[in-house]
Amino acid sequence: MPNVPKITRPIALIGLMGAGKSTVGRRLAKRLSVPFIDSDDEIKKAAGSSIEDIFELFGEQEFRAGEQRVLDRLLNGGAMVLATGGGAFINNDVRKRILQSATSVWLKAGLDSLVERTSRRGGRPLLKQGDPRKTLEKLINDRYPIYEQATVTIETDKLSHDGAVDLIIQALQDRDDI
Ligand code: S3P
Questions:
Q1: pTM of the predicted model, to two decimals?
Q2: Whole-angstrom Cα distance, residue 55 to residue 47?
Q3: How far apart are CA 48 and CA 69, in angstroms?
Q4: Residue with the nearest Cα to atom 8 of ligand 1?
Q5: Alpha-carbon span 16 to 109, nearest angstrom
Q6: Has 19 been labeled as part of a binding site?
Q7: Tell me: domain 11-173, CATH 3.30.2310.20, correct?
Q8: Segment 24-45, tens digit of pLDDT
Q9: pLDDT band per the 50, 70, 90 thresholds, residue 152
């Protein structure tokens, strides 16, 4: 097992829905002995409702504004593992902020894995209408060129969750800006 590096800034996990940000994030936080925070959960707390309800009652734009406010606050919070929603890093201002204040780690997964993993949990407004496979394919085409800006990329398709955690820790050990 790799030695555990000491982090002083947030590690922001980025990637599409179903990439494993929450599960990998929780395990990574435990290994690094830092708090785990899921930005979607913080948005839910702040709004007092589910992500689906926020989209339905106020629209995606309001959700994105809330997401930006919550991430602005969390990114000042020092050492933590922060799972961000799949659209967060796509917003130019949020991305700038993450690249400045955090170590960004892209959990990269192929279409088949994402389709399979997102089918296990609902609550995702973007996948509620139409064919989830087609939607995810479009999101891959639109977002992967932007996710590429992340500091670290981990290809997760062939990895277990713990395997992904090990690779992230290895990648962090090579850096002096964490
Ligand atoms: C979204 C991803 C979701 C959530 C919202 C929008 C997106 O988070 O923030 O449904 O735009 O990809 P997860 O990536 O944690 O599922």
A1: 0.96
A2: 11
A3: 15
A4: 85
A5: 8
A6: yes
A7: no
A8: 999 999 999 999 999 999 999 9
A9: very high
